[in-house]
Design goal:
With 133 residues, the protein is an all-alpha fold. 67% of the residues lie in helices and 0% in strands. It is built from 7 helices and no strands. The two termini are 27 Å apart.
Length: 133
């Protein structure tokens, strides 16, 4: 992640997505805070982000877009309930990110089949790389 603006934008997108079902669950908040700490965002700024408007900033690197998509997918599974609104929203976000819809569907299917919704990072990247061939 290069700039503070990019970090904030990515976290704002995650916050917006985590509330698409109308609630912010405790596990989602905890996950968001873990990501914020990883991005070196302090607690005050983190809390302030919940009161800011989200303006989408397109990430240029495909690797970073895949990472962000996966973070959003983890949030979707975080509360243990898959809402239809979340499923539709993540597909739309992935399209707006320029990610391949077939790869997105495969990753979401793999996550659904996994006991903890996590998949190996190598598998994640391989699914998206296969779509280039």
């Amino acid at each position: 992640m290069n700039s503070e603006e990019e970090k904030r934008s990515l976290l704002l997108e995650m916050i917006a997505f985590s509330t698409v079902d109308g609630e912010l669950h405790k596990r989602e908040l905890e996950f968001l805070w873990l990501v914020a700490k990883e991005l070196n965002i302090d607690k005050t700024l983190f809390q302030d982000l919940f009161h800011q408007e989200h303006i989408t900033k397109v990430v240029k690197s495909e690797f970073q877009r895949i990472q962000q998509f996966y973070r959003l997918a983890l949030i979707m599974h975080c509360d243990g309930v898959l809402h239809e609104k979340e499923a539709k929203a993540i597909q739309q976000i992935a399209i707006e990110m320029g990610l391949n819809p077939s790869a997105v569907k495969r990753v979401l299917d793999l996550m659904k089949k996994s006991s903890n919704a996590m998949i190996d990072p190598k598998v994640l990247l391989k699914v998206f790389q296969e779509q280039h061939n």
